[in-house]
Write a structure and sequence with these properties.
GO terms for molecular function: 4 iron, 4 sulfur cluster binding; ATP binding; metal ion binding; oxidoreductase activity. This protein has 124 residues and is mostly helical. It contains five helices and two strands. It has one domain: P-loop containing nucleotide triphosphate hydrolases (Rossmann fold). Helix content is 30%, strand content 3%.
């Protein structure tokens, strides 16, 4: 749900992909397949996106993306082994809990640097 939408760049040779929120802003009806791109090792990549800086809730991006993927049965269709969410660590928002609340995530692992503020944010 990073507004920069660069979470999957390293898996896609540095290229950007359209975010779910960008696609929804362009048109009201979106086929989830329009937001799914294949990266290194056949890894499926989706960027949730976020609001324009200073406008709205960043967590809304992940809520909207997860709902779109779930409504269109993408998790079942792709039969994924793992789903990894890269979320902002500096924002506390209920939207980031959606994968757990919606029953999509069974385990959560927090990965952070050893930087004090990163650990502080992860602890919150």
């Amino acid at each position: 749900c990073d507004p920069k939408a660069d979470s999957t760049n390293t898996l896609r040779d540095g290229t950007y992909i359209p975010t779910v929120l960008d696609l929804l802003r362009e048109k009201k009806k979106v086929d989830a397949h329009e937001a799914i791109f294949t990266g290194y090792g056949d890894i499926k990549c989706v960027e949730a996106g976020g609001p324009a800086p200073g406008v709205g809730c960043a967590g809304r991006g992940i809520i909207t993306a997860v709902q779109l993927l779930k409504q269109q049965n993408i998790f079942e269709e792709l039969d994924l082994d793992y789903v990894i969410y890269d979320v902002l660590g500096d924002v506390v928002c209920g939207g980031f809990a959606v994968p757990i609340r919606e029953g999509i995530a069974q385990h959560v692992f927090t990965v952070t640097s050893a930087d004090f503020m990163a650990i502080y944010a992860a602890n919150n």
